[in-house]
Structures are given as C-alpha cells and as structure tokens.
Amino acid sequence: MQRTAAPLGRRKVWLTCQRLLQPTGRFRRRSLSLVVRRQRRRRCMARDDFSTAVKNSLRMRASLICSNPDCRKQTVAPSESDEDKFVSLGKAAHITAAAVGGPRYDANLASEERAAISNSIYLCSGCADLIDKNNGKDFPTPTLKAWKEEHEKWVSANLNKQRGGLGGEGGSGTIMGNRGTVIGGMGGNGGVAGVGGKGGSGFIRGDDGLIIGGDGGNCATADGRGGKGARGPTERLGYSTSMWGYGRGGSGTNHPEYNRRIKLLAQFRSEYQAKFPGDAPYIDAGVDVVPADWINQRLVECSESWQVLLGERGYVLPAL
Ligand SMILES: [Zn+2]
Q1: Rounded to an integer, what distance in angstroms lies between the CA atom of residue 155 and that of residue 270?
Q2: Any idea where the domains of the chain sit in the sequence?
Q3: C-alpha of residue 67 to centroid of ligand 1, in Å
Q4: Nearest-angstrom CA–CA distance, 169 and 174
Q5: Alpha-helix runs per DSSP H in 190-284
Q6: Which of 172, 174, 236, 171 is CA-nearest to residue 209?
Q7: How many angstroms does the Cα of residue 154 sit away from the middle of ligand 1?
Q8: Residues with Cβ within 8 Å of residue 284, at least 6 apart in sequence
Q9: pLDDT tens, 211-252?
Q10: What is residue 273's predicted lDDT score, i.e. its pLDDT?
Q11: Residue 138 CB-half CA count within 13 A
C-alpha cells in the first residue's frame, strides 16, 4: 500500500510529542492537542488552488466542453430565469491533487506547479467527480494528461468548422403485398465536418416478405470524405447484382476540399496513363494503381502541401 502524507504528519506530531514529554514521561496534553490542531489547520490551508486567470484560460482552451473523450458534454448554458446569468457544469479539476492525501497527489511537484495550468483539466461536474472516486486510482495521471492533450487537439481541429456531421437516417422498407415485416435500418454515426449518408430504403413486391431497410451511411472521415453508403440487405444476402441498389445506405457529402483533392488525383492518374500507356489498362481494370511516389512528386510540383500514403485499399489522404 502506498504511504500517504497522513502517516508523515503523524510522525511529525510524534517527534513533537517527544519534545513535549516531561522528564517524568507524562504528556503535556494541552500542548499536544494544540500542536495537532495547528498541523491540521496548516494541512487544510495547504491547497494549491488554481487562480482565476488559470481557470479562465483552461475553460476557453477546452471550448467549455468536457475533456473526457467519451463525454464531451457542453458545460455552459444561458440561465432561463435571469437574462444576465448563465449556468455552468464545468470544473477546473486538478490532474494531481491540490493537497496532501488527495487523488493522484504528487509530492515531487512544487506548489506553483500544482497550481499551474499544466496540472489542470477542464471537465463537466460529473466527470470531475468520477476521476476522483476511489481516490483517483481508476484515472491515473497519464490518462488525464492524454485526455487533455487529445481534447485540445480536437478543439483546435474544429475551430471555424461546422459541428460534427449528422448521423445517417435509418432506411425504410416498403412492402407491396399482404403480409410482411419491415425493419428500418440503423442510422449512421455522426462525423467530423461532414454528414453521414442517409439509409437506403428497401422494396419488395409480393405477398410475403421480410424487408430490412439499408443501414445509414458511415460517418464522414477525418480526411473530409462524407459517409460512405452502407451495403444494402440484398447485397449482403447475395442476391443478383441488379438488386444491390435496394436498401443501400446513401453517401454523405464530402468536404469541398476533399472534392478538390479527389479531382486532382484523377487528373494525375490521367497524366500517368498518357505518359505510360503500357500501364494504362491495368490501372483501368484496378489491378494496378498509379505509384504513390508519382502522385506525391506531382503534388510537390503543383505546390500542394499534402501527400498521400498507399494503404491496403488505395491512397490514404491526410486529415483536413
Ligand atoms: Zn464529462
């Protein structure tokens, strides 16, 4: 078990007691209790709280959003009863405790370091309580530092952008017949600066049938591609390709910059095929791709600031 500062405090008291021992070996009780009271008071006072300036800067850097990546709750709203006021659920929490014996207390830090913005994390009140439960053992210092770093990056990446893309809508089924079961598709996930595709709708003509609407499209990706249409039930069940369109999730809208990049890549591909006609049919058939080095060299020549990587399923574009 880790020894905290409490036993240390007691040891100090004990040493003081030794000094207070009378030659007869009896305690001077009143003096002892005075010493204990003083020590307790000093311990209570020794909290390295954040200044108002630190708290203000921290909450603005977090964009008033909880830094727990699984939470990201908005923490401030206007007061409904008073036009001048607001309600706040946000807290400037200590990564390592402000006082001896608190969660994740680090005795190696100087008092100023403990009260510095580097030792703070902005959280909603629920998450601020959560991280201190069990005296912080479930949320160690490195975890909270990683949350803060990731959150600030996320806030920076979303500056001046629309809020996360909407999830795709669930697909709807249609049955023309007497009996049947219809199950709407799942909605797609929300995305970053893009909109998840809408779920496709299914269609069955006949007396009996089970129909499942297509899933919503996937969320938009960090490189700016909109949600990709999910496979429809007819495709998944191995029906003929003419049926694959039924129930397919719709695609989300791409970020305009992503569209521009895709257009540029298509142009480079044409250039490459014109220059190396022997390779052209293989590229057309998809058994070969234009080498990523060629693409990246052309990007440099066109003064573009981004590069592609060759992934398992084609080029990987950098995040926008
Ligand atoms: Zn939270």
Answers
A1: 38
A2: 5-45, 52-157, 161-254, 256-316
A3: 7
A4: 16
A5: 233-236, 256-275, 280-284
A6: 174
A7: 15
A8: 273
A9: 555 555 555 566 767 666 667 667 777 878 887 766 666 666
A10: 95
A11: 8
